[in-house]
Task: inverse folding
């Protein structure tokens, strides 16, 4: 076993960068010279940062100092999570196995990285593991956040479409994403939503201002057609097309 008294780790998530220092202590976490609960007010973000500490059973055993900048709260929390995991690996090499088992040393590892179980939403929904629940919660939260952001930028929308494996086939995930958005004119018909497990279906309530549908999307075909277009098109025409679309 290799153990040090003071360990450093750096984590990045998109534009967020976190630098982490870990030392033996009593479980105190400080972020940008502020108390942990005060800096990360969202429980999901605090759970993300705490994930490596819980996975290695170091709660109450180490003090953590985090300096983070760039990005939003969720991006900063995910950068801090990676920084904490890397610092713990340096702090005690025996912790590396637990961190790798949970995929906590891998950046941008999505559902599999957060849950430590699988990237398959079906597996996560059936699991009683708290980390699986966290992964699903984060997935739905981020989708809901982006819907709100798009509506703000666009000034509204005529419809919201759910497609792909999760969007077309998972009533539970669709419902969790859209819950709490009624003030924006988004209302789900729970019976229609529960019945829509494949194919095209209307799932919005009759009184909603924004229509909601689950639709069939052949993602593999769309990707293949886009790749063929790139391969067959001259560079100049692609640049012109991009300028027109931009």
Result:
């Amino acid at each position: 076993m290799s153990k040090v008294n003071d360990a450093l780790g750096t984590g990045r998530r998109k534009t967020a960068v976190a630098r982490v220092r870990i030392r033996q202590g009593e479980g105190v976490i400080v972020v940008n010279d502020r108390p942990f609960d005060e800096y990360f007010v969202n429980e999901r973000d605090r759970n993300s940062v705490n994930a490596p500490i819980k996975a290695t059973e170091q709660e109450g055993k180490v003090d953590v100092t985090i300096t983070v900048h760039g990005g939003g709260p969720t991006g900063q929390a995910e950068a801090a999570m990676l920084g904490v995991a890397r610092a713990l690996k340096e702090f005690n090499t025996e912790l590396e196995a637990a961190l790798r088992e949970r995929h906590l040393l891998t950046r941008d590892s999505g559902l599999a990285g957060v849950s430590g179980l699988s990237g398959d939403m079906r597996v996560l929904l059936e699991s009683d593991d708290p980390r699986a629940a966290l992964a699903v919660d984060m997935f739905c939260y981020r989708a809901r956040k982006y819907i709100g952001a798009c509506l703000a930028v666009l000034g509204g929308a005529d419809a919201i479409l759910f497609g792909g494996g999760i969007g077309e086939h998972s009533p539970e995930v669709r419902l969790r994403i859209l819950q709490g958005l009624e003030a924006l004119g988004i209302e789900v018909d729970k019976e229609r939503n529960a019945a829509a497990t494949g194919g095209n279906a209307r799932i919005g309530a009759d009184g909603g201002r924004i229509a909601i549908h689950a639709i069939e999307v052949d993602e593999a075909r769309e990707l293949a057609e886009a790749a063929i277009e790139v391969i067959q098109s001259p560079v100049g025409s692609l640049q012109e097309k991009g300028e027109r679309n931009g």
In short: The two ends are 55 Å apart (CA to CA). The first helix runs from residue 36 to 39. Residues 125 and 166 are 11 Å apart (CA to CA).
